[in-house]
Amino acid sequence: MSATALPSTDDPLLVISAHAGDFVWRAGGALALAAERGQRAKVLCLSFGERGESAKAWRDGLDLHEIKALRRAEATSAAAVLGAEIEFLDAGDYPLLESPELVDRIVRVFREVSPAVVLTHTLVDPYNGDHPAAARMALQARVLAQAVGYDAPGEPLGAPPVFFFEPHQPEQCDFKPDVLLDITSVFDRKRKAMECLAAQQHMWDYYTDLAKRRGVQLKRNAGPNLGLPHTTMGEAYVRLYPQTTSVLA
Amino acid sequence: MSATALPSTDDPLLVISAHAGDFVWRAGGALALAAERGQRAKVLCLSFGERGESAKAWRDGLDLHEIKALRRAEATSAAAVLGAEIEFLDAGDYPLLESPELVDRIVRVFREVSPAVVLTHTLVDPYNGDHPAAARMALQARVLAQAVGYDAPGEPLGAPPVFFFEPHQPEQCDFKPDVLLDITSVFDRKRKAMECLAAQQHMWDYYTDLAKRRGVQLKRNAGPNLGLPHTTMGEAYVRLYPQTTSVLA
Amino acid sequence: MSATALPSTDDPLLVISAHAGDFVWRAGGALALAAERGQRAKVLCLSFGERGESAKAWRDGLDLHEIKALRRAEATSAAAVLGAEIEFLDAGDYPLLESPELVDRIVRVFREVSPAVVLTHTLVDPYNGDHPAAARMALQARVLAQAVGYDAPGEPLGAPPVFFFEPHQPEQCDFKPDVLLDITSVFDRKRKAMECLAAQQHMWDYYTDLAKRRGVQLKRNAGPNLGLPHTTMGEAYVRLYPQTTSVLA
Amino acid sequence: MSATALPSTDDPLLVISAHAGDFVWRAGGALALAAERGQRAKVLCLSFGERGESAKAWRDGLDLHEIKALRRAEATSAAAVLGAEIEFLDAGDYPLLESPELVDRIVRVFREVSPAVVLTHTLVDPYNGDHPAAARMALQARVLAQAVGYDAPGEPLGAPPVFFFEPHQPEQCDFKPDVLLDITSVFDRKRKAMECLAAQQHMWDYYTDLAKRRGVQLKRNAGPNLGLPHTTMGEAYVRLYPQTTSVLA
Amino acid sequence: MSATALPSTDDPLLVISAHAGDFVWRAGGALALAAERGQRAKVLCLSFGERGESAKAWRDGLDLHEIKALRRAEATSAAAVLGAEIEFLDAGDYPLLESPELVDRIVRVFREVSPAVVLTHTLVDPYNGDHPAAARMALQARVLAQAVGYDAPGEPLGAPPVFFFEPHQPEQCDFKPDVLLDITSVFDRKRKAMECLAAQQHMWDYYTDLAKRRGVQLKRNAGPNLGLPHTTMGEAYVRLYPQTTSVLA
Amino acid sequence: MSATALPSTDDPLLVISAHAGDFVWRAGGALALAAERGQRAKVLCLSFGERGESAKAWRDGLDLHEIKALRRAEATSAAAVLGAEIEFLDAGDYPLLESPELVDRIVRVFREVSPAVVLTHTLVDPYNGDHPAAARMALQARVLAQAVGYDAPGEPLGAPPVFFFEPHQPEQCDFKPDVLLDITSVFDRKRKAMECLAAQQHMWDYYTDLAKRRGVQLKRNAGPNLGLPHTTMGEAYVRLYPQTTSVLA
User: Fold this and answer.
1) Cis omega before residue F160 (within 30°)?
2) Buried b vs exposed e over B49-78: b needs ≥16 C-beta within 10 Å?
3) Which residues contact A61 (CB under 8 A, 6 or more apart)?
4) CATH homologous superfamily, domain D13-239
5) E-chain residues within 8 Å CB-CB of A143?
6) In chain D, what's the furthest Cα-to-Cα distance?
7) Given this model, what pLDDT does residue D2 score?
8) Distance between CA A236 and CA A234 in Å, rounded?
9) Packed helices B22-37 and B187-195: angle between N→C axes, nearest 10 degrees
């Protein structure tokens, strides 16, 4: 079998997100692309972002229970727009505490989904400690799920590649893009998903501008001769592991 | 057009090599794979490696002229085994001197070949200054060839991705593989090409062992479930520019 | 409002220190300068350094209780000399254990002080694990204190810049100074504060020599034409976040 | 004299730019801010960017002489809008060749202008070899100009800080912002200067979006409490040398 | 006393290993060399590798108890072949959980053995989280054991140098060898120790090939004139702390 | 033969220095130690530092010829105090221009001396471009001298280890010490050699303080138990190539 076969519908995409909104801004395009190709696309939200990413709701006087419900509803809508499943572990945020129990819950998701590709946060983010905590747990769970001796239901996981999605201030997180993903064909859907997050309106334009910016870079790196449209939109990713392939391109 | 179409026969592969033997040890698999797929595969040797990589010939008492002829003959045979064209610029080695004139000659090769993929040396190599010199010139020539205002025949170059091939002591050259290339199907041909370099017999096994080692890593990173054979052979590469794609895999 | 207004008396400086003595050697000049300008200057000591930084006291046969009292007294005197307040959390050292409870206590200090500038240890120190542990907790607490949804008294914190102060073996801690602070005018006071730490006499000269060395570098980087005195004394810092300003200088 | 006095009108700002347009996109805000404060602001263009940055003019059929004249006119207009002087060395581009003679010409500019602050390109740019070449020469000339024994008119230079301005694809150039400069008050002027570069219309919006993006980050790093306006615009810089100061802020 | 005296029999070597097999593949040569010189050589295995490194045993249907016994037996045999003592802490693997209690147990081993040299895993390993966890605990314990105030039996530890041994995919673990150790004279013994690990037969050749590869590099770096035999075998290490010496060589 | 034999009198030490004074401040201890052991110790000064390192002489009104003579005399005295030979290439400084001819002259020195150890400047120094230029030429010459095919008298060079000596502002030059050399026994001689450089009196104390500082670190890294005297003096070095050895210590 070739090392470079493209993903098929048997090849799920799993996004592990610290808070309810992260997957939309940072990986919405990748999710929508996978869903369009018929891949199973699943989002695992470790928390609702109820404390750290819900400033407006707190200022509006909602209580913790109401905020969690609000964030769950928004994220569920956004996932639906993208064509993705979503699951919440409600592990709490700010801080998102690392624990063997939470890692074990993530292992079980890995074993159940058996993803062919995994997306998560960067390991460095001086603006938000929950993001690296989520990433560390996701990576640890992926390795544990590979071990036949790890006591959890399901088959041992293979070795799905891991991509870190783009943090809010990429340079400060040592994020140097390895991959520029062409999301032009699904950008409208990503925009609609962003608009499900009603309280963060200033982010809609920020991440639309970012998609344009990554699109310009994508065209520049793909080569002007490739004929990519002027309106190319992109998302940036960093690989954790080396790419395996049988074609250099 | 998609950002991820695989290379076709219209998509030449260009390898820029400081000395006559480098392309065999470091990129022989990539060349043979490209040739098998029907891509044009071309090697540009900036020098014959007549001073720095021909110790045995000097000890055997050959003169400069004879050594160049010997190295040319060996490299030509090796290229033929791999299915690649080869051109020599005879720019001298140890040291390979950087000059605007030599860069201009490389620009002209870029314009003539219009490669879709470029392979060259790493920018760091504390064991051999010719290697980084070749890489610097290759990269400079690639950028110059892109400019419509650069005065050389042919159309401006697109933006072919650049891969650095593996140096002799990779860690000391800050070489952290980004891509593991499956060369199992063409390894026999690479071995035959290596054997064309008669004076460097100790290298045949060293680079066969390396291909095994990169093959083991390729299997580990591709995932045990992928069913790659036990005898997988690999070559390692580092990307200079971000990959552009419409599928994460 | 400008991004570059200098700190006023409304702008407290907060130093978070793993042990009782660290703030003196590493940030004594910054504290004295702030106090002289009329800023509130506060030191938060997470522990007394009773196990890891009190070798002489242990050799002299004091018990844990006595050593804590001794270190508290010394650090309190040193802070007074510098014009700073001091608070001890008595969280234990060697090891200083990270916990959500301890982080929460630090959050509460952030909310109470509302610092305009924060100083703490580097994130890397292979000679002393308590230092990075203190830094990680300080940074986590700073981010938590910013969230309106974090359940602690007081207003959400702004975004005070963070400076890492100089570790004992800077190069081994990947400490590359971003800022050289001119402490000439308060160096006498820093020296007196150092002398409050009676058991560590060998450090008085080591850190006086260091201040000279950083002073020489300060003059070199500020330019010989600037007319800084021959006796310039300095402290070195590394920024965690980018400087915000409306003037490049 | 203090290490932190803000620049006065005696404190010129010097921007050293490889091509005629670079200073507008990358340092237009800094130039306009300096000019508004009454500082002398000077741009030194090593070339016109006649080959590498004038694709449209070549496609329109202009010859080399015409393109240089066009680029000179555009850059002169842009500098005037920003309130800056401009000088062209016409050293050729693509490639911009490094030579002792060209470095000597730059030394003489340093000696004549005696800048208090220097801005130039980054030392890494895999998309454009002229940018690092300009930076290397600028840095070498600055050091040479400091030596009393260097044979050129004028007084030895002090030690002006050097800031690298932002390249087109910052992460790929290892550009991690150290300084976010608030250019809100002069952004209109920067936009007008950009519009002087008629052939590069797609860049106007790209760099307006970038200014917004850096503005958002500036607000985030300065702290929400600082009351910066929603429309804050920014430019990003990296320092080469440590900042010297007598206040941490 | 000189800073460069070679180790004597009073100078124990301590290897801290996450799992039962690691010390064989990665430090078997160093252990055998020390034992041959008459140094005490001790291996501390934090776990048996019962879950993460025993895939074949699980597939063969053994239970946890049986697997631990098997791994203990194999590792004990391998240590004996190398001439080393071995102790197991049975702390569990996959994940190896960090705790103050486990660190304290390691401190006590440090105090008891008083090693002159310490070997452990790298701090980065994206393929196996137990390895960095073991390294972090080993390093923390070493620092704690140095403090006279740390409450454990025995004398405070000196400052034994720490060497990281080679991980399975060195480049991906940022492993850049600082030291190439000549293990030619004891390689047969290392091979026999590897063969004690019956279930991991594919590793015997992988690590034999690696020893050859490191041997070739050792000869290259030592200089061809040194007359090292063609069959030189090596192990690679990275230093954590600077070497102290009175001779540069 | 062992990979770890200590240097004998057949093992020359070669220091390659950009200017006449560098070898004293940065490698004086290593030179004196080698000379005391009976090794041949040789300094190669590429220039006299007549423009860049002789500010006082220029201010005193000496002309170029007089300054070169002065610097030659001082450096010759200092070398004599250290027990070292010295040779000047008078290649000019500020800038020290790189050329194939100068590299060839250095190759011939390598072939003549056949050093067992080589010391030179760091490859990064933003304060002095001549230092990296000297280092680049020294490293290139070392590699060329190894090639049997390089046309220069003498036998091909082996593979002598290269150590970078300490620059003036080490952190800004990315200088992270790998080796701390104990120079206590020869420090008086180093001090006397420094005093031969009459015009740079401020440096005598700066580098005496630095030797104390590196001595404190040496004791800390060697371990308090080793009994090094309180007055230990040190020099710091960075290795370019991995150490080859048969003992870990």
Assistant:
1) no
2) bbbbbbbebbeeebeeeebbebbbebbbbb
3) none
4) LmbE-like (3.40.50.10320)
5) 94, 127-129
6) 57
7) 42
8) 7
9) 140
Residue B145 pLDDT exceeds 70:
yes
Could you report the average pLDDT of every consecutive run of 10 residues in chain F (249 residues)? 57 96 97 97 97 93 97 98 98 98 98 97 98 98 97 96 97 98 98 94 93 96 77 97 96
Which residue of F171, F207, F218, F230 to mutate against C (max C Cβ within 10 Å)? F171
Task: Report d(CA F146, CA F159) in Å as an integer.
Answer: 7
Smallest CA–CA distance from B173 into chain E, residue: E176
The DSSP bridge pattern shows strands B41-45 and B85-88 to be parallel
pLDDT, position E7: 66
Q: What is the ipTM of this complex?
A: 0.94
Please report the pLDDT score of residue A148 as a whole number: 95
Asked if the Cβ–Cβ distance from F242 to B172 is below 8 Å, we say yes
Answer for the pair C139, C105: CB distance below 8 angstroms, yes or no: no
Q: Tell me the residues of chain A between 99 and 158 that have a Cβ less than 8 Å away from chain C.
A: 126-129
Confidence band of D1 (pLDDT split at 50, 70, 90): very low
pTM: 0.96
CB A93 within 8 A of CB A18: yes
Supply the pLDDT for residue D10: 76
- Two tokens at F26? 């940065």
- Which tokens sit at A27? 């990986």
The domain limits of chain F are: 13-239
pLDDT at residue D3 above 50? no
By DSSP bridging, strand E234-239 and strand E179-182 are antiparallel
d(CA D141, CA D149) in angstroms, rounded, equals 14
Q: What is the DSSP string of B93-128?
A: -SS----HHHHHHHHHHHHHH--SEEEE--S--TT-
Q: What is the C-alpha separation between D90 and D97, in angstroms, rounded?
A: 11
Percentage of chain B surpassing pLDDT 90?
90
Residues 6 or more apart whose Cβ sits within 8 Å of residue E118: E13, E14, E15, E16, E138, E142, E160, E161, E162, E163
What is d(CA C244, CA C143) in angstroms, rounded to the nearest whole number? 18
Q: Considering only CA atoms, which of D171, D103, F247, C115 is closest in space to residue A220?
A: D171
* Planar angle of CA A130, A131, A132, nearest 5 degrees: 95
8 Å CB contact of B206 and E220: no
DSSP string, A32-90: HHHHHHT--EEEEES---TTTS-HHHHHTT--HHHHHHHHHHHHHHHHHHHT-EEEE--
Of E147, E130, F73, D51, nearest in space to C92 by CA: E147
Mean pLDDT of chain B: 94
**Residue linked to tokens 């006279």:** E148
Write the CA distances from F229 to A156, B10, F184, F187, F223, integer angstroms: 58, 72, 9, 13, 12
Please give the Cα distance from B145 to D94 (Å, whole number).
Answer: 9
Q: Specify the amino acid at residue F208.
A: T
Token pair listed for A68:
């969690």
Q: How many CA atoms lie within 13 A of A224 on its CB side?
A: 8
- Nearest-angstrom CA–CA distance, E143 and E159: 8
Say if CB F43 and CB F31 are below 8 A apart: yes
Q: Are F185 and F191 in contact (CB under 8 A)?
A: no
Tell me if residue C45 falls in helix, strand or coil.
Answer: strand
User: In a mutagenesis test of the A interface, which of E47, E48, E50, E51 is the best target, namely the one with the most A β-carbons within 10 Å?
Assistant: E51
pLDDT digits (tens, 9 = 90+) for B31-64: 999 999 999 999 999 999 999 999 999 999 999 9
Q: For residue E157, is pLDDT > 50? A: yes
Q: Give the pLDDT confidence of D18-50 residue by residue, as tens digits.
A: 999 999 999 999 999 999 999 999 999 999 999
